[in-house]
Amino acid sequence: xxxxxxxxxxxxxxxxxxxxxxxxxxxxxxxxxxxxxxxxxxxxxxxxxxxxxxxxxxxxxxxxxxxxxxxxxxxxxxxxxxxxxxxxxxxxxxxxxxxxxxxxxxxxx
Amino acid sequence: xxxxxxxxxxxxxxxxxxxxxxxxxxxxxxxxxxxxxxxxxxxxxxxxxxxxxxxxxxxxxxxxxxxxxxxxxxxxxxxxxxxxxxxxxxxxxxxxxxxxxxxxxxxxxxxxxxxxxxxxxxxxxxxxxxxxxxxxxxxxxxxxxxxxxxxxxxxxxxxxxxxxxxxxxxxxxxxxxxxxxxxxxxxxxxxxxxxxxxxxxxxxxxxxxxxxxxxxxxxxxxxxxxxxxxxxxxxxxxxxxxxxxxxxxxxxxxxxxxxxxxxxxxxxxxxxxxxxxxxxxxxxxxxxxxxxxx
Lengths: 109, 294
Hints:
The complex is a heterodimer.
Chain A lengths: L2 H25 L3 H33 L4 H41 L1
Chain B lengths: L3 H17 L4 H44 L19 H25 L1 H22 L6 H45 L6 H28 L4 H43 L3 H22 L2
């Protein structure tokens, strides 16, 4: 079992206990017992929530491993963009160079 | 009138998009990028709302604890009682995941952006003008220079679209796996994932707390109709709030799956389908934003 399946099983067990206590709450007419059961249900919910918190954190952490193919694709796209920009820069520098030579010729004639 | 060379170049340009690139891929890339950014903002707003709900239940639990354990010694408060359901580092990781996806879709947008190809055309035009300036006369005819610039633009556009299409197709499976894993973390129903945790916090937290307070009140002071009414109203309102929050989480889950479907449509050169999937994402996020102000 993965850590998350352990957590999921434990959370299911907590939910069962909550349902049991809710049924007990429904069947009692003793206010003090009703309140104590209510508190126990909320305590169980809190523990279940801490497990849910852990489950979500674990699932989120696992996302990082699934990002590698996207990072590789982004790098490939970035390289294609950089290649185009590099060639544009080269052409622009030629234009500037031609303009410079033009000015030199103008000053000599 | 165009020179024969210009005509030949114009014919080449006309042939380029069909044989080399996929002009619609830029459209699909733009839609995808919008969908990613929208779903990212939507998820962070939902996480804040989920944390608020959990915090409210923690306060109610401690209040009830003080009442039922009043004869059991000293009552204490601890930070452990108020841990965030989705801590800052986890929502940060989630945001970082979206950032990485947006980095990929943003690169697709840039590569297929007509402005990138137009830059190449301008650079070629500049070289032609430079040559003419240097010679002091028109060595290259203006129509030819313009045609070469247009050809350069078309070649770069087609090459960018072709590369983008190939990358989208190659990345599609990984993209789908990632977005499905994100959707799974949210939970498919009210018994799984974040959705299950939130459903429990309403059902076994908020509603139980209100029901317990109501029973205590009716036993101790049954004539206080105003307070009873307030608790009854709070109970009914909480049921509605629970249903809305669970629907919001389900909406985000559908948005993540819609993003995967939009990417798959782009991979299959169906930009209209991509746009339709992304429209669902923006509609869901807009609806949430309108209702909650987030």
